[in-house]
Amino acid sequence: MKSMEFKADNDKTLISLDRMEERVGQMIYQIPSVFSYYLPTYTPPGRVASASLVSPEAQLGSGPNMLGIVNGLFSLIKYGFSNIWDGFFRGRGGTPNRDPGEYSLAIGKLNYKPSSENSDVIVDELSTLLTSGRLSDANKQVIKNVYDMESNKNAALMMAQQVIATAPEFHTTGLADKTGVPRETAGKAEPASQPYKAVVMLFLNGGADSFNMLVPQCEPLKQQYKDRRLQHALSSGQLLPIVENSGTQPCSNFAIHHKLSSLRDSYNDGKTLFVANMGVLNTAVNNENYSVLTKTLLFGHNTMQEESQRNDPYKKATATGILGRLVDEMYAQGQYKVGSIAVSINSISVAGKPGKSPRPIIVRKYGSQIFDPYPWNKRPTWSNTDLLNYVKSVNTQDTVSSNVFCNTWSDDFLRAVKEGDLTDEALKQANLTENFNTYEDFSVQLQQVAKLINTQVLRGVEREVFFVESKGWDHHADVNNYLSTWLTYMNTALSVFWKEMKAQGMEDNVVIVEISEFGRTLSPNGSNGNDHAWGGHYFMTGGSVKGKRILGSYPDDLNGPLNVDGGSGNGRFIPTTCFEAVWNGISQWMGIEDEEALNRIMPNRLTCGGATGLFTKNDLFR
């Protein structure tokens, strides 16, 4: 905006950006957590991973964010400071179907005018102002061609600015060296023909306090729970009783939080099971040696989020996640058409080995997004030019010496353009019977998953994984009130989602696995909250789940040796079940039976150290 000499209208002194977190993934001063905008160790798939580099900012490289930033810049260039066609700003309202350069709905505009009428000078000037002179000679020629072919020079300038706004030199600080060879993007898939199965990882970001999700109701555990939880202990009126009939737990009577009535009903119907005291675990440890033998940096959000989504403590499968490796193996098996989708966020969980299976798709939380929603060739009074061809030209394949981050932009952006079109086409044909709450994040995301499942035949997918994340579970203060609110949201969303799955005939074909990076302390802190811990209690739910049971091993003494600080500590429990235990049975349910393939999906599954061992598909599913 500064380079292109922005100026507000005389009646406006303040320019308001609108919903930038949704549009581009971040907003000034509004970090998503106390750990800033990005995970410091994030590595996107592709050449960055192959070069053993990290790129924290590449977490913003999701399809919705990339299309959001480019569409917003296009709108700014053509329509000024407005909200027309994905514009970033709060404008003056009105109908959006207007010609570029008509600023009556804007509250300001860009005022840059070239210093010359010579196209070479203009392109050099734009390169200096918008890329610090980084535009390659090849890309300069593309921009020059765009400018020269348009007789209306006001339109020509806007077109040149638009194409630069899609170039890798604009979005990175590297130098791009292009081959001129077009990048290949996936075409429309053949319709699916085999029975469908899907796994949804429901990740509670922040470390959920699961000691108030699953509560023992027999002595002495019941009294120990009250003594250690103090003001956080739930009364009988705040609990929903359930019975555990397997005989493997220290008692048969448990209860779950009163805000989880739908989950209680699903448990009693035999469609939900809990896994007690599960977590990140790379080998067998006790409270004397855990700090020496554990490979993951414990009790930190970023390290334990990464490991709970990767399940690879010894880094044998760098820059990949548990769901991504599962998709890799299903794809290699050649039996099913596979896919992986993360909702809104670029999660490591869905990343597979580059080139081994189709790349994961990131979709918006609601609706779909396409590139350049109102392009030049829709305007009969202006040029019929399709800028997409020029956009593809400035994002052709790179040479081996080209900057890896430039390559990452070009590769991901063109893929996002194609995926946006295909996803938009599919979602427009989705037909749901249930009404989701479109104002609550849990419901919005699960509604999007339900729409995608509804269109799996059209999208040509027979085995699929989803990543859904709910933020806001880092309750260091006022935990009881926060937990009641968030569990209410989760309960309502799950209830509607499973009604929709039943209506689609997909209830038995889908499983949701809820996890968090860690549990929280059994005892309160000084701020009426709970602090970071380790093992937690989680659930699996779905029509095929062999429910009404609690697997794993609930601590038989809440003051006992599973406490990392001994019985006098705050109640941070060493897990007795590793995350791999659950993913082992799920991988088998999805069709992976070969032992070596299972070892590639879970490189540490045979030595993760969980006392309860690995679960098979027969342990988890009917």
How would you characterize the overall build of this protein?
It contains 20 helices and 14 strands. The chain has 622 residues and is of the alpha/beta class. Helix 15 (441-454) runs parallel beside helix 17 (479-504). The model has no long low-confidence stretch (mean pLDDT 92).
| Category from helices, strands and their pairing | alpha/beta
Find the count of extended strands (DSSP E, 2+ residues): 14
CATH architecture of the largest domain: 3-Layer(aba) Sandwich
Q: DSSP helix count?
A: 20
Q: How does the major sheet shape up? A: 9 strands, mixed
Please give the radius of gyration in angstroms. 26 Å
Strand content: 5-15%
CATH superfamily grouping of the largest domain: Alkaline Phosphatase, subunit A
* Distance from first to last alpha carbon: 59 Å
The coarse overall form would be: elongated
Instruction: Assign the CATH class of the largest domain.
Output: Alpha Beta
CATH topology heading of the largest domain? Alkaline Phosphatase, subunit A
Helix content: 25-40%
Q: Number of domains in the coordinates? A: 2
Mean pLDDT: 92
Stretches with pLDDT under 50, minimum 5 residues:
none
Summarize the model shown.
The protein has 622 residues and is of the alpha/beta class.
List the helices and strands and how they pair.
Layout: E1 6-8, H1 20-24, H2 47-50, H3 63-79, E2 108-110, H4 119-131, H5 137-149, H6 153-164, H7 168-171, E3 197-205, E4 214-216, H8 221-229, E5 239-243, E6 253-257, H9 261-268, E7 272-279, H10 290-293, H11 301-310, H12 322-333, E8 338-343, E9 361-363, H13 388-393, H14 404-427, H15 441-454, H16 456-459, E10 463-471, H17 479-504, E11 510-516, E12 536-541, E13 549-552, E14 577-578, H18 579-589, H19 595-601, H20 617-620
